[in-house]
Amino acid sequence: MNEAHPHHHGGSDEPGPAHDPAQGHDDQGPSRRSVLWTAGAAGAGLGLGALTTGSAAAATPSGVPGAAAGAATGAAAAPAAKGKTMIGVPFEGRSTVRVGIIGLGNRGGSMIDLFLAVPGVRVVALCDPVKEKTAKAAKKVTDAGQPAPAVYTKGEHDFENLCKRGDIDFVYAATPWDWHFDMARTAMLNGKHVGVECPIALRLDQLWELVDLSERTRRHCMQLENCCYGRNEMRVLRMAHAGLFGDLLHGAGAYNHDLRGLMFDPDYYEGPWRRLWHTRLRGDLYPNHGFGPVANYMDVNRGDRAVRISSFGTPALGLAAYRKEHMPAGDPSWKESYIESDRTISLVQTAKGRVIRLEHDVSTPHPYSRINSLGGTKGVFEDYPERIYLEPDQSNDEWGDFAKYAEWDHWLWKEHANPPGGHGGMDYMLVFRLMQCMRMGLVPDFDVYDAATWTAPVPLSDLSIKAKGAPQEIPDFTRGLWKKARPGMDSEKPEA
Q1: Residues paired with residue 152 on neighbouring β-strands, in sequence order
Q2: d(Cα 84, Cα 144) in Å, to the nearest integer?
Q3: CA 121 to CA 78: how far, in whole Å?
Q4: Whole-angstrom distance, CA of residue 205 vs CA of residue 208
Q5: How far apart are the first and last CA of the chain?
Q6: Rama region for 54: left / alpha / beta (φ>0; ψ in -120 to 50; rest)
Q7: For the purposes of burial, counting CB atoms within 10 Å of the CB of 324, is it exposed (0-12), middle (13-18) or buried (19 or more)?
Q8: What is the C-alpha separation between 453 and 207, in angstroms, rounded?
């Protein structure tokens, strides 16, 4: 039910733009492909621990993660707040949400269909240095009966001009990971709410800066494509909150998706930016899909907190083996040395003592799985395939039928039984609900603190692997406010 379409998987699958002003200038600058290759070469073989934080980290290329913001020592120390919390802060209500989209490749080029399908949403501006992709997306807008959008195609930094517009309420960024932090930062500094594909940033200092900027600018900054709006995920969430699993004890989530063919496809990942990350970092490059749903089940940042992570990685053999079998001599990939573990396994412990297992594997053969498991004192659910064992419904040591619990479906899935789009419809649910919250002036279901928490395993898993599995502290991005229960993804249907 929740299988991701092979061509609409994991965040920011598309090539997208990057940053610098001037809508009218003609200088295309270096091509995006060359920028990505340069960044990849600069980071190749450079572990995060080889770099420093602070001013030195800021001086490194945006594509190189930097020192994960502070190794094990002091990593969890919260900087002084620069503004009031964004917890519980509603959007400003509006009849129409005006959207600007940055990045129109594989992901952005498909997500635009969902924005256009939601009532009360207008796509007013598009940005991608590849003009053909922008033109194709612009045609979708006019075909949907909306006015022709403004387009920004003049180089890597033209997205800054999109963010400066006065007629945009929400910026959506779907670009290679190197650019996510800069785009989120630029959008908020220009007064826009922003949603970014996974991961939202790559270093802990960047995550803190996004938290601080959200608080200072009073703009929401959100992690999109978080897999929290899947039908199974939302059903399990409601069942957990109703106590059907008893006291929660453990959960698991993953991004296990064989991407070898796509990562070696010169036309799929432009650059090829995603494969190059396997030359630059060891760790869980993509924790959000698995971490987000389980964090919701356990009310992380809403009564519990993720406090530490220990990570272990296998040898890096899969991509080299695939290259040997499939890539001709002389292909640029033969210059690459892969260091990213084929499978990374992490254990996260919460303040209440619960344990969350995270996995990441995109370079070995296996069926797609996000694992999506939750266990408590009354039973357990496991996905891929979906199955459940709950007392007193089951008592014979055999899995039960999860379909029999359809009464626990979230109201979104009861209203939209067959939603369009990828990831089994969850992408549409996310866009619909987010745009609904913006139109109606509601508090969003997830916020910048969730985005930072779900992304923190990227740098921290790398540090833990380098430290032979030693636990790394996960910062408290809420600055103590996690102790207070509050609403989240398990929302009530709003009054019309």
Answers
A1: 127
A2: 40
A3: 37
A4: 5
A5: 29
A6: left
A7: exposed
A8: 9
The beta-strand segments (E) located in 314-354 are 344-350
Task: Report how many helices (DSSP H) and strands (DSSP E) the chain contains, helices first.
Answer: 16, 14
For residue 25, the model assigns a pLDDT of: 31
205: CB partners within 8 A, 6+ apart = 53, 54, 57, 66, 69, 70
- Note if the pTM is more than 0.85: yes
> What are 414-444's pLDDT values in tens digits?
999 888 877 789 999 999 999 999 999 999 9
Cα separation, 61 vs 44, in Å, equals 12
Nearest CA to 188 out of 208, 207, 169, 167 is that of 169
Point out which residues pair with 151 in neighbouring strands: 126
User: Tell me, what amino acid is at 479?
Assistant: R
Q: Which two tokens stand for residue 114?
A: 């969902």
H/E stretch holding 292: helix 288-297
**CA angle, 5 then 11 then 13, to 5°:** 75
Please write the tens of the pLDDT for every residue from 204-234: 999 999 999 999 999 999 999 889 999 999 9
Beta 121-127 vs 97-102: how paired, if at all?
parallel
Q: Angle CA(197)–CA(425)–CA(363) in degrees, nearest 5?
A: 55
Cross-strand bridge partners of residue 344 = 313, 360
Based on its alpha-carbon atoms, the radius of gyration of the chain, rounded to whole angstroms, reads 21
Q: Write the DSSP assignment of 94-133 as a string of letters.
A: -SSEEEEEE--STTHHHHHHHHHHSTTEEEEEEE-SSHHH
CA neighbor of 232 nearest in space, from 484, 465, 488, 1: 1
From the CB of residue 52, how many other CB atoms can be counted at a distance below 10 Å? 16
Residues, the chain, total? 496
Question: What is the enclosing helix (H) or strand (E) of 430?
Answer: helix 426-440
184, 451 Cβ separation under 8 angstroms = no
The answer to whether residues 180 and 196 touch, using CB atoms and an 8 Å cutoff, is yes
Put residue 185 in one of left, alpha, beta given phi > 0 → left and psi -120 to 50 → alpha.
alpha
> Looking at the predicted structure, is the pLDDT value of residue 98 above 90?
yes
